Amino acid sequence: MYQHHNWQGALxxxxxxxxxCVGSNYAKHIKEMGGATPDExxxxxxxxxxxxxxxxxxxxxxxxxxxxxxxxxxILIGSTLRQATEEHVSKAIAGYGVALDLTLRDLQGxxxxxxxxxxxxxxxxxxxxxxxxxxxxxFSGDPQNTPIALxxxxxxxxxxxxxxxxxxxxxxxxxxxxxxxxxxxxxILTGTPDGVGPLSSGDELEVSFADRSLTTRVL
Length: 219
What we know:
Strand content: 25-35%
Pfam family, one: FAA_hydrolase
Distance between the termini: 18 Å
Number of domains: 1
Number of helices: 5
Keywords: Hydrolase, Metal-binding
Oligomer: single chain
GO molecular function: acetylpyruvate hydrolase activity; metal ion binding
Helix content: 10-25%
CATH topology: Fumarylacetoacetate hydrolase, domain 2
Domain Fumarylacetoacetase-like C-terminal: 18-210
Number of strands: 15
Radius of gyration: 16 Å
CATH class: Alpha Beta
Protein name: Fumarylacetoacetate hydrolase family protein
Structural class: alpha+beta
């Protein structure tokens, strides 16, 4: 069963709960998906059953169509946020990590076309492989100006900086807290840059952000 841990693998004393995600948060990704820039953040939730350790081999759903990778900066919430100010948000961030927002792209396309919610395409079991978290006190640099990248089989597929986010981290989390109470142990995913694409069995992945990287593979 998934538990939160730090980058080195030690368990963190935070409960595991929901993942609140934002879509369409990088302009080039919006363009590649043929979408329009939304006026307000597009929010959706992955349940706790979507979380899994990114260091373990990734298990893709069978017979549900193409599964796309979306690399994202992940944020661990350390205390309750409800109708929060940006100041409160800044104090409540416990750590930073990196995650894959796995997406059943064929299914998502059908759901979008029908005007239906995305949860089946975004919230399935193991749809959120995630790294350990670097505590805020140990994170060097600016989380809002941090490189993030994904290589597959040695080839760069996604590469950007969190500086390119449309909705910045702290105001984004404050906005989320207007609709959903965020609690210690909740995870925020901050959107993916361009370069998304399908995963295949046997793929070797290298995920990096800031000056750290980790590897995993697809079963």
